[in-house]
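Good morning C.,

I know you're traveling, so I'll keep this short. The sequence:
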Amino acid sequence: MNIESLSRLIEAADVSVFRSIATIIMPLFKLPNADYCDGPYDGGHDFKIVNMPNGTEVGIQISVEKKWEPKLRSDAKKLKHTSDVDIMYFFSSRRIPEGSYKEVEEDIFTEHAVTVRKYDCQAIASRLVKHDKVSEVLVLFGIKITKPEQKYLTPKNEAVSSLLLFDQKTKDLRQRFFQSIIMSTLSRKPNGCSREQLIESVTESFNLEETQQIQLNANIDRLLQNSEIESHQKVLILSKSEQDRFAGLQKTTELELEMLKSDFKDKLSNLKVTLDAKTQALLLDNFIELTIYLSGQSYNIYDAVIEADSSYKSIRDIISSKFGQQNTHEIFKELSSFFAGTDFAKHIACAKLYDAFLNTNSSHLINALGGVEALNVYIDASVFIPIICGLLFDNVGDRNSLSGASLHKLITKHEFNAIIPHDYMEEVASHLIEACRDYKHIVEKGIELSHSGNAFISHYSRYRRSRPDITFSEYVKLFGVRLNTISSDMSDSAFYLIRDRAVRELEKLASKYSFKTERFKVEYLESKIDELKLFVEEQGISRPDVLIRHDAKVIEYLAGGYIESGIVKLLCTWDKVHSLKNPEGADGYYVMHPVAVIDYLSLAKGNGDVSVSHLLDFAAMQEEADLKLSSQIWDVIAKVDNDNLADAELFGQAREFQEAYMNKHANDESVANEQVEKEWMAWKK
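The tokens, ready to paste straight into the viewer:
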């Protein structure tokens, strides 16, 4: 992640600049200095032959060509035929995918007996960072780093970068991170310090508890044994190689921030509104603070209400004053999308995530999220429905669809095993039947249902904006349900028959997209149901018995000894009941909301292709409150009257009630369904 900005700079280099970069990097790869040729005016000398210290001849080629593959194949063939050299170093300013390169590498060896060692822009950037040569490269591009804001450029940044880019010595992610934060802190002390001062400084910088000082002491000893830290008369200093590496990491973070400032300025100018430098700086600063705030939220209980957060209020006030109140949400969403994809935003979010790593009690969860232990992610109905809807149709751009699409991307990359408990698949099917039963007379009437509590209705309502030709009957048929078979007076046996048929179809669909569906058999279920029912009542939460039964079975299965050891169990859900029931993972499994799962499994592992999900999700939530209220009102009306809404007169009354209710309660902080139902029943009499 930390090398992305530097990699992009290298990728943009022209022939002249890349030649100069080559003169810097060759010694770093222990290659002799040489003059390098590339381009249309090289007189046919596309590569240089040099003698290594051991007497071996190797060919060296540098290239800025976008089509690297034909260039590499051609030069390898020419190298062999003209010089009979069988080792080639290929330095490219481009990004070369490992999968594509491996096939080319094998072909070249088979056809020409030439072994190729490839270094693309990312490998070059990594080597420049490791040897603290970043500043020299920035000079070539004419980039001057202004005095950086130190509050954002802390040792945490280098610690995370070191962990993601270089450190693979141990599979224990917590120990790796402890060693990284020790070295990053010591890198800021060029004259060294005592062990006691180092421990005190690390504890203060990373807000560690005193009990973790034992870990710090043990890891200082390991670093001394590995000669990564040296001790001179009880003064600890980093070894020369580590000092260079961390200095390089610090400079790349400064580069990320500098590029963010420049790109942010360009982004604002594209919005056709002029902001003075002070306002731009304030807006940028508040976006950084908001990212830090959101990324630091609890990973198991998702609190969507942060109106009191001062950074968001400041952003909203600036946007409103410059772009107009009516454009505030749209501009905030656009700027959030831009900011969430920047390297610096990913970096500081990642640093905040690793703060949580340090304060998480279980090393198993940490190691699973770090990719060194097997991970089973169990997905409930609230998470699965937006995913399957987005896969069968289109991602409609709401927050649930966005998080669902990102989760599925992680599944396809085999980051974890994705499992839908059979009981939760039954809930998915039941939601589908309820969507048909309660909404079939109103869902195609153009009313606002994009924030419906029924996820199928919410998705269909948004989907119809771009595909108004698809009927609701056609929509639900893809899930194995026929709309004309469902009515409000259907018998229980008919309901279960349709539900079971829908479950079978949903399971087939799920398997096509790498989801497994599993039936859980547990002992002592009735006592677990009673236990959960009591807990829910104590929390003041209303919950139907059938859902309590499902949740109790899943909880017992995950908490009991039903799954083989060595597999970390993680329940992915928006449901706060599970988070409240098992907040710290003490019951043998862990609970995380989808946004946290995405950021932990992508940003925290250095995936530069993924934006900061916490920020994107928050931006998606800041839509107009009246849309949510409108959908809530129609949810209640549909639940109460379902088939009766086929009557045009009653539907007209419902429209009038919805408008009147919204005018009356537009400024209410929250509205209870019971209140809506009471007023609707009185209205239609």
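Safe travels,
E.
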